[in-house]
Every structure is written in structure tokens, then in C-alpha cells.
Automatic annotation (TrEMBL):
<protein>
    <recommendedName>
        <fullName>Cytochrome b</fullName>
    </recommendedName>
</protein>
<keyword id="KW-0479">Metal-binding</keyword>
<keyword id="KW-0472">Membrane</keyword>
<feature type="transmembrane region" description="Helical">
    <location>
        <begin position="26"/>
        <end position="48"/>
    </location>
</feature>
<dbReference type="InterPro" id="IPR027387">
    <property type="entry name" value="Cytb/b6-like_sf"/>
</dbReference>
<dbReference type="Pfam" id="PF00033">
    <property type="entry name" value="Cytochrome_B"/>
</dbReference>
<dbReference type="GO" id="GO:0008121">
    <property type="term" value="F:quinol-cytochrome-c reductase activity"/>
</dbReference>
<feature type="transmembrane region" description="Helical">
    <location>
        <begin position="123"/>
        <end position="144"/>
    </location>
</feature>
<comment type="function">
    <text>Component of the ubiquinol-cytochrome c reductase complex (complex III or cytochrome b-c1 complex) that is part of the mitochondrial respiratory chain. The b-c1 complex mediates electron transfer from ubiquinol to cytochrome c. Contributes to the generation of a proton gradient across the mitochondrial membrane that is then used for ATP synthesis.</text>
</comment>
<keyword id="KW-0813">Transport</keyword>
<keyword id="KW-0679">Respiratory chain</keyword>
<keyword id="KW-1133">Transmembrane helix</keyword>
<dbReference type="GO" id="GO:0016491">
    <property type="term" value="F:oxidoreductase activity"/>
</dbReference>
<keyword id="KW-0249">Electron transport</keyword>
<dbReference type="GO" id="GO:0046872">
    <property type="term" value="F:metal ion binding"/>
</dbReference>
<dbReference type="GO" id="GO:0006122">
    <property type="term" value="P:mitochondrial electron transport, ubiquinol to cytochrome c"/>
</dbReference>
<dbReference type="InterPro" id="IPR016174">
    <property type="entry name" value="Di-haem_cyt_TM"/>
</dbReference>
Length: 160
């Protein structure tokens, strides 16, 4: 739940009291890590084979990467333990380094002057909504890939 007083106990309840809740939680967390492994291999392959020359497809892919990173970060904050709280505080405070708007941007993301209930509620909502946006962006990424064609590292003409 997105309540600061019950978030941690809610996760504890799922892990201890719900049948196979611990499995669902760890599959969710470790599945996200494995997704990042695949994502980084995909980006590395794109860099190695020069796929960045297809600018539209590459840029949509980079936007996808940042959206997935944002979703993972917000999911990391949701259990609301000490690491979650301080992770949210430190990472969001990095935005305060942006000249002129940084401090206001951080306060806007927090929904106040510190990481609190409003922040957790926003992160909960965005952690739910962003995967749908990511799915739509993935379709756009594939559409651009279909239009430009895939990078062919073998050099063999695929039209024959």
C-alpha cells in the first residue's frame, strides 16, 4: 500500500503470511534485475553493431531505458524500509544539481519539502502506470525498427 505507516508491514505480511508470497516478491524483484541484464546486453549489442545510426529507433530505445529505470527505482522505494527511504532521498536530491529549477523540481517530485507520504503515493501510482507507458513505447520502438530495418551484422542481404 502507499501508506508510510503500513508499507513495510504490508511487504512483510506478503512474504510471511501469504502462500508463496515470498516467491512472488523475489520473482518480481529478481525478474526486474534479469530484465536489466537483458536490457543492458541489448544496448551493448546496439552500440557494438552501430545501431545508434538509426536515430529515431535509438532515441525511443533510450527513452525506454530511462522509463524502465524510473519504474525500477520507484519499485525499490515502495517497501519503505531504511534503504528505500534514503535511496529515495539521495537519488531524488541528485536532481537539485540542475541549475535554476533543481530545488523546485525535487520539491515537486516529493510533493512537499521531504520524502514523505505524498512521495510514496506518487511513486506507487507511477510504478503501476509506467509499465503500460513502457509497453506503448516498446510498440513505437518496434514500429520504428520495422520502418528502418534491423542492423544486419552478418552483411548478408536479407532481402533474398
Amino acid at each position: 500500500t502507499s501508506n508510510t505507516s503500513t508499507a513495510f508491514s504490508s511487504v512483510t505480511h506478503i512474504c510471511r503470511d501469504v502462500n508463496y508470497g515470498w516467491l512472488i516478491r523475489y520473482l518480481h524483484a529478481n525478474g526486474a534485475s534479469m530484465f536489466f541484464v537483458c536490457l543492458f546486453m541489448h544496448v551493448g549489442r546496439g552500440i557494438y553493431y552501430g545501431s545508434y545510426t538509426y536515430m529515431e529507433t535509438w532515441n525511443i530505445g533510450i527513452i525506454l531505458l530511462f522509463a524502465v529505470m524510473a519504474t525500477a527505482f520507484m519499485g525499490y522505494v515502495l517497501p519503505w524500509g531504511q534503504m528505500s527511504f534514503w535511496g529515495a532521498t539521495v537519488i531524488t536530491n541528485l536532481l537539485s544539481a540542475i541549475p535554476y529549477i533543481g530545488t523546485n523540481l525535487v520539491e515537486w517530485i516529493w510533493g512537499g519539502f521531504s520524502v514523505d507520504k505524498a512521495t510514496l503515493t506518487r511513486f506507487f501510482a507511477f510504478h503501476f502506470i509506467l509499465p503500460f507507458i513502457i509497453a506503448a513505447l516498446a510498440m513505437v520502438h518496434l514500429l520504428f525498427l520495422h520502418e528502418t530495418g534491423s542492423n544486419n551484422p552478418t552483411g548478408i542481404n536479407s532481402d533474398t
